């Protein structure tokens, strides 16, 4: 019996491999059928670039782009042996011209361009040839308007090429920027390890970043950090799981699930609607007379009922092929905001919403639906992605308001909300917002600067909670019912005031009594709005949205701009 370590590709005469994670002996053929993932501990063994292309792409769809390298040695570099000798040895050992393989292929029937790094080749280091190959792959994707998939495995910039290797960081980042400007989807797949100049350039710039379980990503490696600054690091530091928690990657996906996940992303980004039957009648209530007058406090209580459909409930019931994206790419992933891509009634779109939860445990985990700054920044990141790809945005809002804690203030909660208001005002794509439960203050408005603002019949929307208003103005929260009536927080009042554009009726005593019917009502209302908005051009959308919000309070004051030579007196000076 022959045994080999799993970080070396098994060859035909090897019958068994050792798992690099748990050390268990694995039957080689079974291990290969599992795409080199240990069935015992889930350890993902390294793949060669060729193996990776085969694992990701549809059968017989890969066409490798030939890479001819000059073998240049720009610095005349020699350590224990000349750099050209190292290159020739790496080429002989791997059978590759360089540390990246570029190819055309298909994933789920969608054409893609791929650049796949191979750690076996000088640690997957980023040299001039690698940077040139990745840049040219990006340029092919740009010319053909084809999504670009980047698979990274690297120790960083290649030291033997010095400053010219460093320049590849700027060069590849510039290439991805051109794809951003052209509205072409980019996806990064982080494999173990991805460090240094690769991590700090094209690996972390794609629209969606997927990591394999346990993959490490960072600017400086653990040993460098510990030796340089003497800092003690936690065991999970720089792993995919650590990075997901800190908002750097969008998702962790086991190797076997990668093709399906990529297919869903590519499907949404393709912007090709999947024709589905449209509602034959308009279900959205836009006339005040059709709505009964209701006690405002009863509406507040109805909006807060435990068991009302959450954002994830609605997504699960009306959005197909949903791919959730995580993190603000800066510090954290706020669980109170859910965001991702999918299809509603066959229409590719982005969905963003606040998430309260359906159990006591989930409520606590989701911070009771009160977003932190990282949540609003995650929402902004995904809205920018929607604008890049030309996808409409649907926001689902049920929150008492933005989280008011110390950490939120330290992370500039007010700035995060303000930036969302400015961003949404000028998004060049259709935006539909639905208040499904509570619409609390600026925390709700940060997701509700939209072309169409809708409310569920039992929802409420207000500048402050009824209890908060009562405490401030009546000096007691017991006057909350009186405050709710004065604030006119119910859907009928808000439709009359012109703050919302329509009301979505709820089944029975409320949406929580029939989730399927409630979801179908929401689906029909949103489709109705999107059918009106999607044919409009960008300038018409932005102009109408600006006018919509400009009119609030437009007749409440006049600001006189007197001629410069005319003296101006304050009332106290007269």
UniProtKB/TrEMBL annotation:
Top class in the EC scheme: transferase
GO MF terms, alphabetically ordered: acetyl-CoA carboxylase activity
Transmembrane segments: none
Protein name: Multifunctional fusion protein
Key words of the record: ATP-binding, Cytoplasm, Fatty acid biosynthesis, Fatty acid metabolism, Ligase, Lipid biosynthesis, Lipid metabolism, Metal-binding, Nucleotide-binding, Transferase, Zinc, Zinc-finger
Start and end residues of each CoA carboxyltransferase C-terminal domain: 269-532
Record pathway: Lipid metabolism; malonyl-CoA biosynthesis; malonyl-CoA from acetyl-CoA: step 1/1
Pfam families listed in its UniProt record: ACCA, Zn_ribbon_ACC
Family: Belongs to the AccA family. In the C-terminal section; belongs to the AccA family.
InterPro entries documented for this protein: Acetyl_CoA_COase_a_su (IPR001095), Acetyl_CoA_COase_Trfase_b_su (IPR000438), ClpP/crotonase-like_dom_sf (IPR029045), COA_CT_C (IPR011763), COA_CT_N (IPR011762), Znf-ACC (IPR041010)
Cofactor-binding details, from the entry: Binds 1 zinc ion per subunit.
Oligomer status and interactors: Acetyl-CoA carboxylase is a heterotetramer composed of biotin carboxyl carrier protein (AccB), biotin carboxylase (AccC) and two subunits of ACCase subunit beta/alpha. Acetyl-CoA carboxylase is a heterohexamer composed of biotin carboxyl carrier protein (AccB), biotin carboxylase (AccC) and two subunits each of ACCase subunit alpha (AccA) and ACCase subunit beta (AccD).
Source species: Nocardia tengchongensis
Record's subcellular location: Cytoplasm
Cofactor(s) needed: Zn(2+)
Lineage: Bacteria, Bacillati, Actinomycetota, Actinomycetes, Mycobacteriales
Gene3D superfamilies according to UniProt: 2-enoyl-CoA Hydratase, Chain A, domain 1
Chief place where the protein resides: cytoplasm
